[in-house]
Amino acid sequence: MAFLFLVGVAAAYWAESYGNPQLAGVNQSPTALQAGGNMEGKEVRFGIANTALFAAVTTDASCGAVNGLHDSFTPLGGMVPLLNIMLGEIIFGGVGSGLYGILVFVILAVFIAGLMVGRTPEYLGKKIEAFDVKMAMLSVLVSSMTILLFAAAAVVSKAGLAGISNPGPHGLSQILYAYTSGTGNNGSAFGGISANTLWFNSTIGLAMLLGRFFVVIPILAIAGNLAGKKSSPASLGTFPVTSPLFATLLVSTILIVGALTFFPALSLGPILEHLLMLAGKAF
Length: 283
Known about the structure:
mainly alpha; 2 domains; 2 strands; about 60% helix; globular
């Protein structure tokens, strides 16, 4: 988790420090890596480094406090807090939910490791069986489907499109962030979107309901199932979960199962916006 945290902070700082190439030579901040660093939406007393750090921290947990406007970040800089919430705010654990988000990915990683090496999937002395994996995947699917389906409905409806303040891919990023933040119980936002409408108030409210209760139900089922199992002593067939190898496998599982689920949407939003920015087009 420390690795994912450091990558997120470094990526956000790099993107904000290099800023928009159309402003090359305009020294907005003496703390930037080069002249032209993006200071839009940031307080001078915090600068680029502290704002990037705060944006990563507040979305690594379901905090929601901000010291800068995420909507004014560069495309890749804004993608970092967006992706942090999409992954389930697992790095620090959500407020009121603690570690259960990362435990879902741990169960999936243990099961995948067991399948690959032919060992019995076990975690904390409890065998990980089909029911546990089904509930873990259900929890991941509920969260991702809530974000993507509501965002898809918004971009094809007049009521949804009426709320965005920027056309093109940045408008999609605003919609994605609104439903991602609601589903993840975060509270931060791409503030350029006009979400105080009947459409967004209703759909984001439903996203919050699904993202909180319908995600925790399968996790409670996992907890009850594991609690009823007898503990098995470690043996030669037990896959160790305290090694660098398992840490690598866990991060890989998070990126493959979690991040790639949202890659098509991110490609049409912040990634496309970044490429167009390099081509000289801003939104």
